[in-house]
Amino acid sequence: MNRGVFWQYNEFIQAGADFVDEKRVAAYDEMMGKIRNQKERAKEMMELLSLNKNDTVIDFGCGTGALTIEVARKCMKMVGVDISTAMLEIAAKKAKEENLFNIDFHNAGFLTYEHKGESVDKVMTSAAFHHLPDFWKVIALQRMHDMLKDGGLLLLSDVVFSFDPKEYVNEINAFLDFIKVKAGEALYNDGILHIKEEFSTFDWLMDEMLKSTGFDIVKKVTRSETNIDYVCKKRKKSV
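Predicted structure:
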């Protein structure tokens, strides 16, 4: 699968907030820092992935590299993938400033990144998977599955809904209010765009997508009714 397939979903046309604009990208780290401590979050993710120094890891939707760089300090090789060239430029600059030379950055996405070389030990993605509609989520999961070694781990952290669909109005309002209190008006407006234009889904759908594409769910951490961490293992082929 590549960018030449004319009917493929174009992941380079961003749904929701525009992270191609350089001014928005420059402010991204500051905004996200109001929601979470990036270093602490990276530590949590590394623990969930049982990361070790010999691992090769792909980070889909690496953005400005805040999590990617922290993980790269603790593994052998890191691959950062993102559709925003503006974000990748910042990520590459950070890596150079930190004297980290084990990261390869690629301007691509879940559907267009073409992995070269051996299968990898771990794949991670944080706050990016919701950019794909459900059909294309399944295709993306299958592609990530194929990039992993047998028994390799996927950490999928995203806005995934676990509330009762009947309560969607109250739950979405609470989600947006939380963002506004924590991070202010700009990220609140991005949150509105997320709900209106992006593709977050329910956990019972995500569970089945993962299982159907060859993953076993090792751990499911429901951080809130709108955010879940999935730790999944690539199912070994039966002989």
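Summary: The radius of gyration is 17 Å.
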